[in-house]
Amino acid sequence: MMRPAFTSTKQAAAFALLLLVVLLSPVIVGKNLLPPREQAYSTCGWRMGPVAWIRHEIYEETNDIDIAFVGSSHILHAIDTPYVQARLSEQLHRPAVVRTIGWAGGGYDAFFFIAQDLLTHRRVRLLVFYDENNVLHTRNSLMTFLFRYGENADSLQGLAFADACHFYFSAIVGMPRNLIEIFRPNLAAPLVTAQPNYWERSYGSPSIVELLGATRSELGFTRRLDQDDFTLFLPYQPATGVTAADAEVYSPARKNDFRFTGEAMPDWHLHFAKLFAALARDHGCKLVMLHIPVLGEARLPEIRERRCWPEIMPGLTLLGVPPAKMFGSLTDDEVRQLYFNPAHLNKNGVDYFTPLITPALLNLYEN
Q1: Which residues are CB-neighbours of 36 under 8 A, at least 6 positions away?
Q2: String of b and e for 256-286 (b: at least 16 CB within 10 Å)?
Q3: Bridge-partner residues for 290, per DSSP?
Q4: N or C, where is the chain less crowded by C-beta within 10 Å?
Q5: DSSP character for 43?
Q6: CA atoms in the 13 A half-sphere facing the CB of 207
Q7: Which residues contact 157 (CB under 8 A, 6 or more apart)?
Q8: CA 215 to chain centre
Q9: What is d(CA 112, CA 118) in angstroms, rounded to the nearest whole number?
Q10: Beta strand 248-249 with 258-260: parallel, antiparallel or unpaired?
């Protein structure tokens, strides 16, 4: 016979009270008892992305940003940020400020909270992102760090109860860490270390400081996202005849170059996407959604998106290069030399893609 869980009613009542306190801890702690928001970034490990760089750019730098590339791994691995900064500096006849703010794991939830912190502390003139598409019904693993109920409860208004409960549970999971940080704050991770950090070691990329927050992965191709048996990386420069003039900006007159699939999307995704659009509008920040083609799109004649995003985010500009045009003259093996897995560009891909879309971005910055 198993022993009872509690030997007395008092024990059961004490346990029930403790459980209630745990469940209500985000409400009890509220906003005033939380540690500084900066601590949400100081506790994240390098595998969650170059979060030390994100913290530095949000809380230590104060100057205006001309162009910010913000988002999860597709943005992180797609843009040669120093190249864009150099071209914009030439155009403006002054030193431009261009930064990449990227992390691991997709979703408009993490995207909204990080963008909110960035725009609260720094003025961004043009913010470039991509459709934060992640696996259906999943939440970003950064939520236990980024969603703090006392600060972010307003963002849950309008969400379905079940979806709101997911975020509230994240706040419960993160609460013990938040309470410890009140008495023992975490030190900020150094941006440059004697030993290579995770991204430098695992992806063969130069320092994120040198790349202004981006990565340039010197990895050959592997077929699965969850594998690291990369083939040998070989430098490769495609000779395609594709130019920056092939980049397309969505408009009703050019709609044949775009296709909106209506793919299933959870309501909470749209919820945070719309919150982000309102946030950018309130801060006077222009938005560009950049289509970064994955390997499976290489032969598609048009740019495919899940929704007509300019209708969902008024004022948004949708930019991309039709994949079949971008890769049309390349063989399948040559296309794979631009990727380190089916979803992410490697150094070859970054060096090929960035110059194609930079002139359009600079034009959108000015106009």
Answers
A1: 185
A2: ebbebeeeeebebbebbbebbbebbeebebb
A3: 319
A4: N
A5: T
A6: 11
A7: none
A8: 13
A9: 10
A10: unpaired
Short-list 297, 338, 348, CA closest to 320: 297
Nearest alpha carbon to residue 41 among 152, 206, 181: 181
Both structure tokens of 191: 């941006």
- CA separation for the pair 280, 286 (Å, rounded): 7
Give CA separation, 87 vs 21, 23, 131, 359, 363, in Å: 55, 52, 25, 8, 11
pLDDT 10s per residue in the chain (367 long)? 567 776 788 888 888 888 888 888 899 988 889 999 999 998 887 778 888 999 999 999 999 999 999 999 999 999 999 999 999 999 999 999 999 999 988 889 999 999 999 999 999 999 999 999 866 556 678 889 999 999 999 999 999 999 999 999 999 999 999 999 988 988 888 888 778 877 788 888 888 899 999 999 999 988 766 666 778 889 999 988 899 999 999 988 777 889 999 888 888 989 999 999 999 999 999 999 999 999 999 999 999 999 999 999 988 999 999 999 999 889 999 999 999 999 999 999 999 999 999 999 999 999 8
Element spanning 271, H or E: helix 267-282
Tokens of 343: 């979803």
Separation in Å, CA 362 to CA 25, 213, 288, 356: 47, 19, 11, 12
> What stretch of H or E contains 304?
strand 303-305
CB 205 within 8 A of CB 216: yes
What are φ and ψ of residue 319, in 5° steps?
A: -130, 140
**Rounded to the nearest 5 degrees, what angle is found at the Cα of 54, between the Cα atoms of 207 and 223?**
60
Q: What is the residue type of 48?
A: M
pTM above 0.85, yes or no: yes
